């Protein structure tokens, strides 16, 4: 092996170190904050290693190519639970409905972008998180096609005042459950499937950006919602965590809700979506089947919108 090829191989192996550590952290299932923060980055790591794979194969660096293949395998296995969760089996002939959910970002004043994104989605129900004062004053323009709307209380927030906004083709009624430190708003939509409880969610940022117990306490609050209401339920919004990391696993264990697939990613919207992290989640109860999950048109936010489509789940087979 020539000196140049030896240097390139060494450089590739060094570059593979951090992605391999991310994959190992995700596979470990350890919930410690130092490990969990790494587990959030499986998607970006896989994208990065894919680029490295193209380079090392192109230069015919076969030792590095073998190491890259192993790293890709580790990351693919680590990311599988968030990218390919069960979707459920749809009941034959059951009605459907679609949901548009997005963190539109409190500093976003692109009212036209929000309106175009929602119109292009054509969803039956809209859940908007972190709506700032400017768009809040122009809801007729943004969700004017929806006859039923509910706006949550104005939250002062560190980045400016914001609120939740729900809009629907069908009647809505607000419900509330006390949950310590939880930023969420809930209502019931009268869909063709019957009443569906919808909870708009915005969890705090993870450690080290906020105190380490914040998300854990708030995830427990979501479990209170699930205990208080029976029947179909959906959590949608910005969870500041991928579904396969500590908080996602906690939500699934304590509520029994199932995440929608987390690929392609939602944040940051400036990144290519395959390289982004899916921290904008949609969780459903098992009595709903997920028919489709896709990303919506950009709306001026640093988060991409998520569009999901649901129907009634088929009952489990007898026996």
Description of the molecule:
Pfam families: Exo_endo_phos. Keywords: Endonuclease, Exonuclease, Hydrolase, Membrane, Nuclease, Transmembrane, Transmembrane helix. The chain crosses the membrane at residues 33-54, 61-80. GO terms for molecular function: endonuclease activity; exonuclease activity. InterPro entries: Endo/exonu/phosph_ase_sf (IPR036691), Endo/exonuclease/phosphatase (IPR005135). This protein has 319 residues and is α+β, with helices and mostly antiparallel strands. It folds into 2 domains: 3-83; 96-312, Endonuclease/exonuclease/phosphatase (Deoxyribonuclease I, Chain A, 4-Layer Sandwich). The protein is 37% helix and 23% strand. It contains 9 helices and 12 strands. The protein has helices at 3-28, 33-39, 42-58, 62-83, 111-121, 133-136, 139-143, 214-228, 246-255; strands at residues 96-103, 125-131, 148-151, 163-168, 172-175, 184-191, 194-202, 233-238, 258-259, 280-284, 288-295, 306-312. The strands form 2 sheets. Strands 3-4-2-1-12-11 form a 6-stranded mixed β-sheet. The protein has a 6-stranded mixed β-sheet with strand order 5-6-7-8-10-9, with no helix packed on it. A hairpin with an 8-residue loop joins strand 5 (172-175) and strand 6 (184-191). Helix 1 (3-28) packs across helix 2 (33-39), helix 3 (42-58) runs antiparallel to helix 4 and helix 8 (214-228) packs parallel to helix 9.
């Amino acid at each position: 092996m020539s000196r140049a090829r030896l240097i390139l191989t060494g450089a590739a192996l060094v570059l593979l170190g951090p992605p391999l550590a991310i994959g190992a952290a995700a596979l470990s299932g350890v919930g410690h904050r130092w490990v969990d923060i790494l587990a959030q980055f499986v998607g970006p790591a896989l994208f990065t290693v894919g680029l490295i794979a193209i380079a090392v194969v192109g230069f015919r660096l076969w030792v590095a190519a073998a190491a890259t293949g192993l790293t890709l395998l580790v990351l693919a296995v680590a990311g599988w639970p968030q990218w390919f969760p069960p979707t459920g089996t749809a009941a034959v002939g059951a009605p459907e409905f679609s949901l548009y959910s997005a963190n539109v970002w409190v500093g976003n004043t692109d009212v036209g972008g929000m309106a175009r994104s929602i119109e292009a989605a054509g969803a039956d129900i809209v859940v908007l998180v972190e709506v700032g004062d400017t768009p809040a004053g122009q809801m007729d323009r943004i969700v004017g096609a929806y006859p039923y709307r509910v706006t949550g209380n104005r939250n002062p927030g560190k980045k400016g005042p914001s609120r939740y906004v729900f809009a629907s083709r069908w009647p809505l009624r607000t419900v509330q459950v006390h949950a310590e430190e939880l930023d969420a708003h809930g209502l019931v939509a009268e869909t063709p499937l019957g009443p569906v409880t919808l909870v708009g969610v915005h969890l705090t940022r993870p450690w080290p950006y906020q105190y380490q117990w914040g998300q854990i306490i708030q995830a427990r609050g979501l479990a209170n919602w699930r205990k208080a209401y029976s029947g179909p339920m959906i959590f949608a919004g910005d969870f500041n965590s991928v579904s396969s990391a500590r908080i996602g696993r906690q939500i699934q264990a304590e509520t029994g809700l199932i995440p929608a697939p987390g690929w392609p990613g939602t944040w940051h919207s400036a990144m290519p979506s395959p390289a982004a992290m899916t921290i904008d989640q949609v969780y459903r109860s098992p009595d709903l089947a997920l028919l489709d999950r896709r990303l919506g048109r950009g709306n001026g936010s640093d988060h991409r919108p998520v569009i999901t489509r649901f129907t009634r789940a088929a009952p489990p087979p007898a026996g």
